[in-house]
Amino acid sequence: MSNDKSEKSSDANITANETSETDNLPSFGLAVQRVSTFESIRKATFGGAAGVQDQQYLNPANEIIPVFRTMSLDVKQGTNKESRKKQARDFKSIDIHTLPVDKALAKLQAMSVQQGGLPDVVAVTRLKANGLNSITPPSDPYILKILSFLFGGFCFLMWCAAVIIFLSYYPLPQLDNQQPSVYNLALVILLLVVIIFQATFYAWQDWSSASVMKKINNLLASEAIVIRDGKSITIPASNVVVGDIIDLRLGAKVPADCIILECSPDFAVDRAVLTGESIPVSGTAKSTDASFMETKNVAFMGTLVVNGSGKGVVVFTGDNTVMGQIAVLSSKKRTERTLLQKEVDTFVAFVATIAFSCAAICMLVWKFVLLKQAEPQYDIIGMMANICGIIVAFVPEGLPISMSVTLTLIARRMAKQFVLVKNLTTIETLGAVSIICTDKTGTLTTNKMTLRDTGIGGLEILEVSEKAKNLFHKVAAQCCGAEFVDQLDKTTPIADRNISGDATDKAVLRFAESLGSVADVRNSFSKIYEIPFNSRNKWMMTIQQSSENADIFSSSVTLFAKGAPDVLYPKITSILNADGSISPFDKEAKANVNAMQLKWAGEGKRVLAFTYKKLKGDFSGVGSDVEEAAIKAVSELTLVGLGAIVDPPRAETKPTVEKCKEAHIRVAMVTGDFALTAVSIAREVSIVSVDHVDTVADMRSHTDLLSSGYKTSKSGKKTYLRSNIRQIEDAHRAIVVNGSEISDLTEDDWNKICCYRELVFARTSPEQKLRIVDEFKLREEIVAVTGDGVNDSPALKAASVGVAMGGGSEVAMESATLVLINNNFSSLLAGIESGRLCFDNIKKVIMYLIPCGTWSELWPVLLSIFVGIPLPLNTALDLVICCITDIFPSMSLIYEAPESTLMSRPPRNPKKDRLINIQMFAHVYLFIGLMECIFSFIMYFMYWNLEVGVGFNDLLFMYGQLDNNQVVFPNGVNITQGEFLNYSYAGNSVYFVALVMIQLFGNVYASRTRFNSVLQQNPFWGPTRNLYIPAATVLSISVAALFVYLPVLNNLFQTGPIPVMYWFIPIPMGFFILMMDELRKLAVRIMGPESIISKISW
Predict the structure, then answer these.
(1) Which of 74, 247, 257, 439 is labelled catalytic?
(2) Helices (H), 886-976
(3) Residue (of 990, 995, 1043) closest to 870 by Cα position
(4) Basic and acidic residues compositional bias: what residue ranges (predicted)?
């Protein structure tokens, strides 16, 4: 409470002290108020409903940093950490845009263009007070992140083992007056090293993701032109402050939310990044709507100036902008864990459950059975070491390392294919994608408009008279806001000349120039007023004064308009005929024009109508209501002709879609185009391949359609099941759904729609796109969604894999999980292939690690406890195998080339084809693991028999007799305790070497493929060669030899030197395991995927 009081007192003092000094100063300082709530921030900035309260202002000359804080403080500065906990701003209550310019500037303490904009010292002060003009990323809880690195995943089990072993070093020995074992201390240190090593890899993986995000952020625009101290200067966009005067030029991105102070009549802003509407919105210096979001005198952060120029005053920066508030809302939704993270979580839970259960059973048997023997083999310290061995045996310590390296390598490979991955674990999810919801423009198409067809009076332009063609040329030249950058360049082909303007106008300009010089036409007119194309009117118009006495426009004021035919038809009263005459726009004329329009729309072309009207009198004299008068003048038009614009598909789109179909991935087009146009484009790129495309009405009339199945729990909750993709493909039906129909679709409708193979969603809004994604996900589909605008961010975040375009908005990139740098749809398919390869290779690594690293390490401990044999493999060597000798071969499997069936089999169903499943455990434990375990025990007992003369039966049930000074075996062999330890340590080496050699010459080659033979996937030559495997073999054998023959390591890890033959005998055992797995794969290939052998195989 004392702090609050002191702050209030301080505020009061500042205000009182500065009052006398600021009475005569212009109002461009920040208000001295401390605010704590969002509503108070809004009131402090713009005043309450009753108006602005009397405020005192700081003198910038005194360089006092104001204590006012806004929501735009950047996390990098360590300020405003609670900003993302606030609610989103209610922009409906903002009314500053409705005020006269002078009052708006006064509220913002800004200075007009004539006054030279903000003084630089004030701008610097505001920047220090309010922070950078950037959208605050979600704060990173670094402490929690570090803890997750150290204790997450398998590290938790390793900590448990380390604690247990440490207790056996201290204080348990001291309590029993025993000397603590140095071996136990070394084992604790080794476990800690393994934990730190794994945590380092987790951190490296996280750092790799962060470095990718830095690359993504570098794609964003970073400069703005502002007027300060009477000068126009270029500054980083992040340094823009409230009250800055922004110079809005053609092609520039608006750096912050601002009110337009002045602009050219043709000023227009593309708000597609916010609204999804591709048609630019005209701008004006006059408020046109009470809503801050709807008015035309506001330019929003991230939008693009596509026509004209203007100047605006900044009202919101950073998180306070509309884009920033959308980002705040997006950040509140908890990011869903990826499939790979869920798979690893399941694996960790399973391993932990089995490990602790097995350890508990062993402790109970020891306590109530084995401890009651006359000479128990283990005391509490020995049993704790065994329990640690059990836990360590179950943990595949090399898996996190191999998984991190796998993901990083594949992420780098994807980066070379222009795919940047934000979260490395998303790579595997990408491989499981079963349906892609993609937009059309710029993804499937080139986003380069071409006016391909034109017609006059229902006839193609080549069939009309020169008079009609000449008139069309003049109208088209005027109905176009684009310009050639180099007006004097007449030698470069029209198609190659550089043009400024939007894509549609570029297409019209090229067409008009092909008919004659556009510059000559425009030079004969002078522009009076213009309204750019916008989503409300669906047309553009320009009013021109003719300066020559020629043709139909001689010395007259003429209105030229182009737009959507269905919107302009009611305003048309006459039509230009093919011979150049004008006639009424009667039923016959309408029928001819409609036939042409429908024909072109059916071919996937966007149709435009070109019109004109001669005005009476001097239009420039209408005064301030010029826009209203211009809109009213759009009537009684003469239709000159129609033009069909096409955005051609990318050359790679069709082959990519066909490859998706081969991979059993469905591609759904989700577009804002009309249904007829959308279906036509879908046919062109092979998204639709059937003759008849169902509508929603058609679908409802059929009773024999596939429908998504579900199961109902006892509580009545439905759980949907993914439909069989092969059944969907066999049915091979297509459907087009209009956005207007989506709200009326029932649950049964969606069940049927989600079972169509070919899907087109037309005239959709961002909300409807989100609904589509949610419906597919509800039915267990793994959905990838493409998008580039802020409006796409909810769908991108809701998708299983959000795919943002490289030229998209910052919010879209933040919401997405990967970014296509080149906006190329084929790059997404390459990413899917990498994702499938990632899953396969990680599974291969698990197949390699677990038989040795878990099963073959567990049984030595169990047999030692329950049947009383010497421990064949100690815990330290468990760790050596898992973290050293097995790491090199497992990492070589990361570099495996994809199998030939990788992109021809259906995407995996995460509910059925899991990373860790029953088939996998059966394979690693009962097949490969069992053989490895048996062969290793054979080698171990062979050593005791050949080197010591003690057979298998003589080693059984020795228990505590092995701790006697003189160890006597049932067959009469008598050795000292020291000799027994030497033989026991050498026996450890034999078991250890057997496992290493069997892994290297058997299991590593068996794990390379799931279905193909080793002869089909040759590791030594050809396209599938993997020379990392022989290199890893040499490394692993070399490391194993060090632990067997180096005296220092012998003492530390309780190993001993062994004869050379024990290195070679396991090799044919490895070949036998490989041969057995080859027979399994052969059976799978011969009997097919539906056979029993296939269903029980991994």
Answers:
(1) 439
(2) 887-893, 918-921, 929-943, 952-955
(3) 990
(4) 1-10
